[in-house]
Design goal:
Order of helices and strands: HHHEEEEHHHHHEHEHH
Largest sheet: 4 strands, antiparallel
Structural class: alpha+beta
Shape: elongated
Length: 443
């Protein structure tokens, strides 16, 4: 995982220069609250694994002490008879116990916790991938609408030049007032489209900021080099759909998570089955006490050190517990674990099927987007040529402004579709690479 940008640089510093797609994804991953939540869950999984290991191989040890004073009748520890006096008693104890056999539940818990740790890594990767994909889509939307704003501005400049030219021809008597009004209407229509494009760009930029957790009050500049650089559109996929799907079924985070849940359910079922066997535990301890009778002039207490040593005692205990009747709770637990395993197996199979479907769809979308790009490129070239020819005809009075507006709209639509096809292919091809095992940040 790459964390070089965003962790050490503030948004204000990064805003000084346009951000590439890679930088936006890194920033989003580094500042994502979803990532922080998943990191906390992964830390909990590590703690649970540590607790499972300690529970299986280490004993529980406890120590205690007490002190109390008794007023009135009490048993004399020396004579074991009741006396009326004030006494003071103080005791100390240390004990420990360890489970020797509990139906292998401790060992199964270690296996379950190990799987949870691996699932945590896959969950982190899945969250990161989802963030990157969402940022990629929003980033391409910003590029698309930004480029459309640039296109509309260039068309407006051309329209203004045409209006100026038509007005001069009106003064010379070569054009009528209707032609001027129509050209002015065309200019107003383009300016309206520019405002719509600018609003769409701002909306796309706001969506990108929200995904990145970028401060809303700060400026976010995106790198437009992806639009300006020449793009030919080549199919770089050298593997078949079956090969990509087979790889994804084994390595995709969703597949690993589903498989981990299934393995956890299998170990939980094993634990439930072994709970019908007796459990064996070993415990031991040591204790001592001290007593005295304060206020009695005819009594001399044995020194504390002597009592501490002489009153000490040890014990060792081996306990064997047989489950006889617990209101069928063990049978209920076993049935639930069986149902849980069947459920996880079905979810795992469904996940594999979904991944295979997604891979097939992604490959088809990538190939379709590439074909659409080539067709849109041809269409854009033809529409551009038609636009230039009809623009000359308009100036010569061979076509009406209404006919020219139709040609212009076709040309703008062709440019928009070409740009959209380009970004769609970039997005779809990135998804295919992702299923081939290349994360979005490493592409």
């Amino acid at each position: 995982m790459i964390w070089t940008i965003g962790m050490g640089l503030s948004a204000a510093v990064m805003a000084q220069e346009p951000l590439s797609l890679h930088a936006c994804m890194e920033y989003a991953v580094a500042h994502s609250t979803k990532k922080i939540i998943q990191d906390a869950s992964y830390a909990d999984a590590l703690i649970e694994r540590r607790d499972a290991i300690l529970k299986a191989f280490t004993p529980t040890v406890s120590a205690g002490t007490y002190a109390y004073s008794n007023f009135g009748r009490a048993v004399d520890p020396e004579t074991n008879t009741y006396i009326s006096s004030t006494s003071f008693n103080n005791g100390y104890s240390v004990s420990g116990s360890i489970t020797l056999f509990d139906g292998f539940s401790a060992l199964n818990n270690i296996r379950i916790s190990n799987i949870a740790v691996k699932m945590g890594i896959s969950e982190e990767q899945k969250v990161e991938d989802e963030i990157c994909l969402a940022v990629m889509e929003a980033y391409y939307n910003v590029l698309f609408h930004s480029q459309m704003v640039a296109v509309m501005k260039s068309r407006i400049e051309e329209a203004r030049e045409n209006v100026t030219l038509v007005r001069r021809k009106l003064e010379l008597g070569q054009k009528g007032r209707a032609d001027v009004v129509q050209m002015e209407a065309d200019l107003a229509d383009r300016e309206y489209q520019l405002i719509n494009s600018m609003n769409q760009r701002e909306d796309a930029l706001l969506s990108l900021k929200a995904l990145m957790l970028w401060p809303m009050e700060d400026t976010l500049a995106v790198d437009m080099s992806a639009v300006k650089e020449p793009f030919t559109g080549t199919d770089n996929c050298r593997e078949s759909v079956a090969e990509i799907a087979g790889f994804a079924r084994e390595n995709h985070p969703s597949a690993r998570i589903a498989k981990g849940k299934m393995e956890q359910a299998r170990y939980e079922l094993k634990t439930a089955r072994w709970q019908f066997l007796p459990s064996l535990s070993l415990s031991g301890g040591w204790s001592t006490s001290y007593y005295t009778y304060p206020g009695r002039t005819d009594y001399t207490a044995v020194p504390f050190a002597s009592q501490f040593r002489n009153n000490g005692g040890e014990y060792v205990q081996l306990s064997l517990s047989f489950p006889l009747y617990d209101r069928l709770s063990r049978f209920s637990s076993l049935s639930k674990k069986k149902n849980g395993l069947r459920r996880m197996q079905a979810e795992y199979e469904q996940t594999l099927h979904d991944i295979e479907s997604e891979v097939t769809r992604a490959a088809q979308d990538s190939q379709g987007a590439l074909a659409a790009f080539f067709q849109a490129e041809k269409r854009s070239m033809v529409q551009e040529e038609a636009y230039r020819l009809n623009e000359k005809k308009l100036m010569q009075g061979l076509i009406s402004p209404i006919e020219f507006r139709t040609v212009l709209n076709d040309y703008l639509n062709a440019q928009a579709e070409l740009l959209n096809a380009r970004f769609q292919y970039l997005l779809k091809s990135s998804i295919v690479k992702y299923y081939q095992g290349i994360s979005y940040l490493n592409q």
